Amino acid sequence: GAECRRGDLLAAAGAVASPALVGMAAAAGLDTLTVVRTPQVATLVLGDELLVRGPARDGRVRDALGPMLPGWIGALGALAYPPQHVPDTLEALALAIDDAACDVIVTTGSTARGPVDHLHRALDRLGARVLVDGVAVRPGHPMLLAALPDGRVLVGLPGNPLAAVSGLLTLVGPLLAGMRDDPGADPTLPEQRAVLADSVSSHPDDTRLVPVRLDRGELVVSAWPLHH
Prior knowledge:
alpha/beta; three-stranded mixed beta sheet; seven-stranded mixed beta sheet; globular; 5 helices; 14 strands
């Protein structure tokens, strides 16, 4: 009875099953815990113009999102699969979405409605229900959220890396927190007060999302706007 007594609440519903909590439960004599499974996320990187190694060349650019997203998705509390590069065709995209064995599919690019942007048509072909089709923010306004008939969820991120990160933090993060039965959790976006250290132009219509670098002084925290 030194650590806990009969009837004590060891962990409230919704608590994270951390190593410390698991050890405490074992010490109390519990053999099993009922948990919410970690969401499993597949990433589909779209764009024939993307290179997977070396510098940009011959009119093609290096893929920055494929290497970055799995680690960031993991930090958001999900299990991220290695990224898969998908050719810029409707058939290839629809097949990759249909074959993805996961809870959440994250795509990069193809969220607009240009001649080689096939995401909307692929979702129509698969019978998906689009829940979010654009958000009034810059960067990141063409982000997309759709529900597939089998219960999987697809998040379409813009192809621009900064716009994709904006969608990752404002759309994917809350989605994964909700799937973990922790809708109030968003560890990547702690609220902080800081003094803006440089001017930032606004957008005439949309909310502008600005990445900053925080400098913590003795008396004040300064936020320096970043361009990339």
